[in-house]
Amino acid sequence: MSALFADLLEVFPEGVALFRARLTPADQRAILDDVAFVIGEAPLFRPQMPTGPYMINSLTNCGSLGWISDKRGYRYEPAHPTTAKPWPSIPESVLTVAQSLTYEAGLGAFEPDACLVNVYAADGRLSLHRDYDEADFKWPIVSFSFGNDADFVLGGLKRSGKTQSFALHSGDVMILGGESRLRYHGVKRIRPGTSPITHPVLPEGGRINLTLRRAR
Ligand code: MD3
Ligand code: FE
Question: What is the reported pLDDT for 6?
């Protein structure tokens, strides 16, 4: 490969589509305004893991179902764990982008019923895991990144598989479908001072990730 283009080519496994900088800073701020509304209706919480400790990141959800974790395990629930109110609906601003990019990626229609809002503080991370609580893995997951860069790790179908690391930047949209839907993945660290935008919902030094899913 020519050295000139070596930095531009990113090669990913089948089923991964990464739309770099798909959202302009103005798009990103408009979506974060909607995220602020969601957090107002459904406050951020730190779920307890079945094994005991609390998750390092705080989270909330929108959509008819939301992902939660407590001592009984992980699952999707129709209501917030502390307010008991239904989750607010998925903002049109994210839904339309997720649906058009899924179509653009050749994956057809996407009808998500759940959107997990992950808020990373400056020291936030996410250990290697699979998203395994959804009913039908034929549906992709669509992820949106905002704020500081994340060092993302994409692994194989087994925990011990080979991994690939790359940064996710604010405004990137990534789709995980096909054979990659069940790959292990995680976030190693957040890089402070790399965000191209500021917004009241972005924690100092932190990051927000939205993942749209079809839970049922
Ligand atoms: C690869 N969030 O919420 S998003 C999660 O950046 C989660 O906050 C990460 O993993 C974050 O569960 C990663 C990108 C992502 C989402 C789902 C995947 C990557 C994935 C499913 C399979 C393989
Ligand atoms: Fe995940």
Answer: 66
